Amino acid sequence: MRVVKTASERRNEILDVAGRLFATKGFGNTSILDIQKETGIARGTLYYHFKSKEDILDSIISRMTQKLAEKATAIADQKEIPVLRRLTAVIMALHVDHDLGHEILNQMHKPENALMHQKMQKELSDSLIPVLTGLVEEGNAGGVCNTLYPLEVVEMTFLYACTAFDDLAGDSVRERQRRIVAFIYNLERLLGMEEGSMRAVLLPVFGEAQPERRSHDKETNLE
Known about the structure:
By secondary structure, this protein is an all-alpha fold.
């Protein structure tokens, strides 16, 4: 018996299959024909939903961004959890740690995908800046933060992070460590927080371990 699916179900099926193929074979090595065969649908049906392989990738990015935003909002809404722990959890929720996410980031860094990259950053910015601003405002009210400009601090931090930490692959270990330490140091001052408050929160995001605290640590080395 032929199963009839709604347009939404069919679109999501195509995105699921394409996402799996992109993650395992790579975007460049996956063809429209591969996606068509894997889904078992007619070529015309696939093109009814998506104009091209790039259009499919664009839709995967939008869906991933939406899921990240929903996850971040759900975490931020758990008011029974201390605000700094929620801020930590929201930041960690944005960390890409799966094959599809890494493949998408690889595609984003290619010059021909600059507009797609810009769109992803815009969607993340529109969704997450209000969530993060709300947490900073809570931090102000609870004495964890002390800034007169929660929104502007979040905007500056988010936009800088998207640029400075978009791709650290070309940095030496020392350059990477210095940039991370400087970012955390300056963010704590923008938020009006005690030095070291965000260290444990942010280092895992960059894949760095939390070092032992020194009496007056002004070093840029995380080791």
